[in-house]
Design brief:
Elements: H1 4-17, H2 23-35, H3 50-64, H4 69-73, E1 75-78, E2 81-84, H5 97-110, E3 116-120, H6 126-134, E4 139-144, H7 147-159, E5 165-168, E6 185-188, H8 195-199, H9 221-230, E7 239-243, H10 249-258, E8 261-268, E9 274-281
Parallel strand pairs: 3-4, 3-6, 4-5, 6-7
Antiparallel strand pairs: 1-2, 7-9, 8-9
Helix pairs in contact: 1-2, 1-3, 2-3, 5-6
């Protein structure tokens, strides 16, 4: 049997040789997941069982081929909560936590104690579930077109004991959803990659679902449709909160202005890039 340290060093070298800049971190995450030890290198000479070694080597091979770590592990953390992740949903990213913060700030500032919130293009449900956990009195709806993604949302709601409403429907046709409560807040991280973006995707991103990535030729299709169609369901004075891609802020702002939204405010992500917007429905 090989020791933890020997196997860790070997796996790290494999990932480094394949150009992975996070080789140590990725190998550590794989070790933690398989060995079930938060600090696996505290016992560097501990032998790794044949079973665990085989699985670790398999995972490292996948990672060396560019397969995302999150999909390999089948789970990832978002806003301090654990989420089930699969190739059927977009990988939750730290930048999207800014979008959650925007919604929480609106509720605190406007003293909306029991908001009705719609999370459109919900994906894994990380936004919807997190908002329900952070505002237990909220009535949260997750709307998602993919049946497979809906299954993931249900799992994540159960994992986090979050009582949310899950709707399998196309956000571009809200009229098909039927009767529902007027939302105080609509939050959405829609597909926003352009055709040019799709043609030049980083290797890891190619494993994520195209349905959750492609936003039309200029990346703005969902912003146009959602802003126009959902504004009539939003309460007067209600809020629309978006995440968008790099350098799309002016285009998204113009769409909001065209649809008579007021109090438009932009926020930056962890890298300092303008990433989210909040806008209020004209009263």
């Amino acid at each position: 049997m090989v020791s933890r340290r020997e196997l860790y060093n070997e796996c790290t070298d494999i990932l480094k040789n394949h150009g992975n800049p996070d080789a140590e971190f990725d190998t550590l995450c794989i070790f933690q997941d398989i060995i079930h030890d938060k600090n696996p290198l505290f016992q560097p000479m501990e032998a790794v069982s044949d079973r665990d070694e085989n699985i670790i080597r398999e995972y490292v091979k996948k990672r060396s081929e560019g397969y995302p770590l999150q999909y390999i592990l089948g789970k990832w953390e978002f806003y301090g909560y654990d989420f089930r992740i699969s190739p059927d949903v977009l990988i939750p990213r730290p930048d999207t936590e800014v979008l959650v913060e925007n919604v929480l700030s609106i509720c605190r500032r406007d003293r909306i104690n029991s908001p009705v919130i719609y999370d459109l293009c919900s994906g894994s449900g990380c936004i919807a579930v997190t908002l329900k956990k952070e505002i237990p009195s909220a009535e949260v709806y997750a709307v998602e077109i993919s049946e497979k993604a809906v299954g993931i949302i249900k799992e994540n709601a159960a994992i986090n004991n979050a009582d949310i409403n899950i709707i399998n429907s196309d956000v571009r046709t809200p009229e098909n959803i039927g009767n529902f409560k007027a939302p105080d807040i609509i939050v959405c991280n829609p597909p926003y990659l352009t055709q040019e973006d799709m043609d030049t995707l980083q290797r890891e991103v190619t494993f994520e679902p195209e349905l959750a990535l492609f936003g039309g030729a200029d990346g703005l299709d969902f912003y146009r449709v959602i802003t126009e169609k959902w504004k009539k369901y939003l309460k007067n004075g209600g809020w629309l909160c978006y995440e968008f891609g790099y350098d799309q802020h002016e285009d998204v702002k113009n769409i909001l202005i065209k649809n008579r939204f007021d109090n438009i405010s932009m926020s930056r992500d962890l890298a300092g890039i303008i990433r989210t917007v909040t806008a209020q429905k004209h009263i």
